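Chapter review: from sequence to fold.
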Amino acid sequence: MEPEDEAFEELALKQGSWQYTSGWRKKQIMENTDMKARQVFIALMIGKGYTVEELAWEGRKFSNPAITTRWNYFLLGWEMRGTQ
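The token string follows.
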């Protein structure tokens, strides 16, 4: 099992809402979550004055390393919301 899968299961178990689901389903859930989070993040960054070129997406990260760092922290907060 990949560390990412283990972390996802652990978080879900802490929230008390996870039933056993196969790895491909977890990946599907995370991609949908990631897409919505990315849309919100890009909207926020455009509101702060960043250009679309600075927010270019390349595979699993942004092309600008500084934006990727901000994205990682944003995504962490996005995934952890609702935990106690």
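Two observations follow directly from the output. The first helix runs from residue 3 to 15. The mean pLDDT is 75.
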